[in-house]
Amino acid sequence: MKATLICLSIVAAYADAWMPMRPKVMPAQSKKTQMSAGLGIIIAGAPASGKGTQCARITEDYGVVHLSTGDLLRAAVAAGSKLGKEAKGYMDSGKLVPDQLVIDLVAEKLASDECAGGGGWLLDGFPRTAAQAKALAETGAQVDAFISLQVPDDVLVERVVGRRTDPVTGAIYHTTFDPPPAGEIADRCTQRSDDTEEKVRVRLDQFHANVAAVSAFYAAVTTELDGNQAKDAVYSGIKAALDAAKDKKKGAAPKASAAAAATKAGELDPEITSELAEVQKDAEERLASKKAGLQKALE
Questions:
Q1: Confidence label for 162 from pLDDT (cuts 50, 70 and 90)
Q2: Most exposed of 3, 47, 67, 163 (fewest Cβ within 10 Å)?
Q3: Residue 128 annotated among the catalytic residues of the structure
């Protein structure tokens, strides 16, 4: 009887000691949008901060798809897609298109072969609020660089108020910095009805009310640049930030591939292997302690 109890005690000791070695059940991960092979870029800045000029250069140099929510809405409406028809209903009634609908349009575009399977994407002036940034993140979109152009309000007002547009060619001029050619072109240039100081100040107040929260959301990948300098100087800063983001993304790819290869070969992730080694060491120590106790009991 005593021998049987001792045997059972030894079995119990082994079972108790090795119990932690049972594999953990990992929570299932939600399905996310396919990661783009290229860069995911967001450029932010107040009206007249120079985003349009810089977007053209970024698109040309990095091969990313330039996306603006205005263009996406117009394209969806023109195509008569489900989301486009829904957006058209709001636009025709003069109402703002809901955030969720805009997010759905952006997510749909980012998941397309043009963006996900190509050279990446560039979101121009979106997201504008922290809620939009959070909703965009929930789609699985990976932002590699958030570029914020900083320009004093008084400079922005001067840029906007002096802006003129040629209705024939679409060219944009400025009465001080880049005046239209004298004569026919100058005579036909017009000013947008909302390009007045009063209305610009309102738009700037709205921008400042939200930009800090958006920048904070992307703090880990944010680069703030002085937009009140020569265009080439601004782009030099943008290029340095994007090149660094590109190098970082390239460096992460081999590491991810190695992890995937190890998983495929039946190997464990290094972090899991280390955790299991610690558990095994603890189990061996517990087992040795119990065996010593049993040995003492037999003496």
A1: very high
A2: 3
A3: yes
Q: Which helix (H) or strand (E) holds 124?
A: strand 120-124
User: β-strand 172-174 against 163-165: which pairing, if any?
Assistant: antiparallel
| pLDDT score of 243 more than 80 | yes
Residues 203, 239, 246, 286: which is the catalytic one?
203
C-alpha 155/C-alpha 158 separation (Å) is 5
Q: What is the mean pLDDT of residues 129-136?
A: 91
Which pLDDT score, from 0 to 100, does residue 293 have?
60
Q: Is 203 a catalytic residue?
A: yes
Catalytic option among 51, 109, 159, 249: 51
For the four alpha carbons of 284, 288, 293 and 294, in that order, the dihedral sign comes to positive
How far apart are the C-alpha atoms of 287 and 267, rounded to whole Å? 27
Q: Which of 109, 159, 163, 164 is catalytic?
A: 163
Q: Is 188 considered catalytic here?
A: no
**Quick check: helix, strand or coil at residue 95?**
coil
Give, rounded to a whole angstrom, the gap between the first and last alpha carbons of the chain.
17
**Given this model, what pLDDT does residue 75 score?**
87
Q: In which element (H, E) is residue 245 found?
A: helix 231-264
Q: Is 159 a catalytic residue?
A: no
Q: Which tops the pLDDT comparison, 6 or 41?
A: 41
Q: Which of 192, 231, 248, 281 is catalytic?
A: 192
| Of 62, 71, 18, 69, nearest in space to 41 by CA | 62
Give catalytic status of residue 164 as yes or no. Answer: no
Q: Per-residue pLDDT averaged across 34-59, rounded? A: 88
Nearest-angstrom CA–CA distance, 118 and 112: 9
Neighbours of 254 (CB within 10 A): 9
**What's this model's pTM, rounded to 2 decimal places?**
0.67
Catalytic residue among 128, 159, 164, 249: 128
